[in-house]
Amino acid sequence: MYQQKINEKLEDTGEIQDVQMEWNIIKNVIVEAAKETLGEKKGKINEEWFDEECASAIQEKKNTRKIMLKRMTRSSKENYREDRRRVNEICRERKREMLMRQIESIEVDRERADTRKCYQTVKRFRRGFQPLLNARKQNSGKLIEGDYKMLQHWARYFKTQFEKEYSEEQEIDEEVFLTAEPLVKEPSQEETEKAICNLKINKPPEEDDITAQLIKNASQELKKGFKQ
Questions:
Q1: Contact by Cβ (8 Å): 47, 56
Q2: pTM of this prediction exceeds 0.90
Q3: How far, in Å, are 6, 36, 83, 191 from residue 27 at the CA level?
Q4: How many other CB atoms sit within 10 Å of the CB of residue 30?
Q5: Is 47 helix (H, G, I), strand (E, B) or coil?
Q6: Is 33 helix (H, G, I), strand (E, B) or coil?
Q7: What is the pLDDT of residue 106?
Q8: Which regions of the chain does DSSP assign to beta strands (E)?
Q9: Residue 183 has pLDDT above 70, yes or no
Q10: C-alpha dihedral sign at 59, 65, 71, 74
Q11: 3-state SS track over 164-214
Q12: CA-wise closest residue to 48 among 99, 116, 14, 104
């Protein structure tokens, strides 16, 4: 179905001499065909354990907090604390259930001898939570944090680089050297298909949103376009 959709979309395109325009067409064909046949799934934060009950409990806690802020009474404070405790209990329980499912998944992968998937899950367990730090180590080894200090650091860095490049340009005589580029033989169709087969799978897509699996499973007609 995926290959058929690619061939249908390629039939609507004419011959194009420009390489960049041809690649843009091939890229759009792959992405559109994949979306229409395979669908599109966007990952969500905490999707492994966060469910409707968690969302409902958090929304109730927010509503109770609004009431407490409008009227700061003993009962409103107690209601808010009760809802907050309930949210924490529900979320902790869902996280426990998720961990149990992951442990069971590791056992299943081990029994099936799927070592790659098994070690990936174990690695996530051992790594734990990894916070994102907005920090940078200076040449002296001192760690700087904060947006303002980071901006100052990069401003000094790029200023130094600019002054260095400018001084080097002043020292170099303005001479132009003409060199002949080596002749590169055009790859054959067989070499192109071999390069496609050697693409590594299970890698995140680049900025074009195309994974190696989509290229490998594309139709023969589209693979001929890569030879250009």
A1: no
A2: no
A3: 11, 14, 50, 21
A4: 22
A5: coil
A6: helix
A7: 87
A8: 135-137, 143-145
A9: no
A10: positive
A11: HHHHHHHHCCCCCCCCCCCCCCCCCHHHHHHHHHCCCCCCCCCCCCCCHHH
A12: 99
Angstrom distance (rounded) from CA 208 to CA 202 = 16
Cα distances (angstroms) measured from residue 221 to each of 6, 28, 50, 66, 217: 9, 15, 43, 60, 12
Condensed to tens digits (0 to 9), the pLDDT of residues 84-139 reads 999 999 999 998 998 888 888 888 888 888 888 888 888 877 776 666 667 777 77
Quote the tokens at residue 20: 């960049």
Residue 112 identity (one-letter amino acid): R
Question: Which own/partner contact pairs does 61-65 have at CB distance under 8 Å and 24+ positions apart?
Answer: 61/86, 61/87
Beta strands per DSSP E along 43-190: 135-137, 143-145
Segment 46-66, tens digit of pLDDT: 677 888 899 999 999 999 999
Taking the alpha carbons at both ends of the chain, their separation in whole angstroms is 25
Beta pairing partners, 143: 137
CA distance 226 to 65: 58
Q: Are 117 and 109 in contact (CB under 8 A)?
A: yes
* Residue at 142: amino acid letter: K
Only one residue has tokens 């054959």, namely 188
Q: Of 79, 44, 49, give the one whose Cα is nearest residue 64.
A: 79
Q: What single letter denotes the amino acid at residue 67? A: I
